[in-house]
Amino acid sequence: MVLYEYPFNEGIRTMLRLEHLFDRLGVLVARDAAVDHHFALATLFEIMDVAARADLKSDLLKELDRHRTQLQGYRGHPGVEEAALDAVVARIDHAFDGLNQLPGKAGHGLAGNEWLMSIRSRINIPGGTCEFDLPAYYAWQQHEPARRRADLEGWMATLTPLAEALQVLLGLLRDSGAPQRLVASGGQYQQSLPAGRSYQLLRVHFDAGSGLVPEITGHRLLVSVRFMRPDAEGRLRHAGTDTTFELALCA
Length: 251
Known about the structure:
The chain contains eight helices and eight strands. It is α+β, with helices and mostly antiparallel strands. The strands form two sheets. The chain has a four-stranded antiparallel β-sheet with strand order 1-4-8-2. Strands 3, 5, 6 and 7 form a four-stranded antiparallel β-sheet that branches. Helix 1 runs antiparallel to helix 2 and helix 3 packs across helix 8.
């Protein structure tokens, strides 16, 4: 099965982009090649750029606090397992405290590292990090993989509270949506959304071997999924065949 996710607002879009970057960073840091660690640094700088949004940290803290308050309201309800509830609230508390203790914006500490910032200023220039442009960076790339990895993990540690907050919030959001098994007749599916209910994320699962690509659109009143198939030149064309898939709406 392959999963596609569609955010309904800019806040969730930013969170998904950061999650994508953190996932990529973890993969690249674990490798040994100097070129992988170069792109790990590039990804670290991308995370700093996305996280530089002025209200991101406060928005995440508000969301963590909202979920904590909501979950605390379930205490004493029949059918609610207190131990499981305590575990989730503890994860929220840990993420909240870690993010709240970060000074300034996420990545603020790295911005004061002149060596890193010299690389950041040139990394988007084609060929801008050659050895004659940044000899100190070239020398760093000659170190043993374990030494480079230790440096990268130290820099990543300043962003760990942000990654943990995202993991908790996106996990809670995804768990809120129950998947429905549906059929897109002729490759097209539409569903009206109930008035007064605000959804934040749409998730579409379907067979990875189908070769299809979903074209997803949505707003507060309607969602639409149209299944497309790439032609020989990669252009997407409407598949036009009945397609079974799973859809989850997460609030």
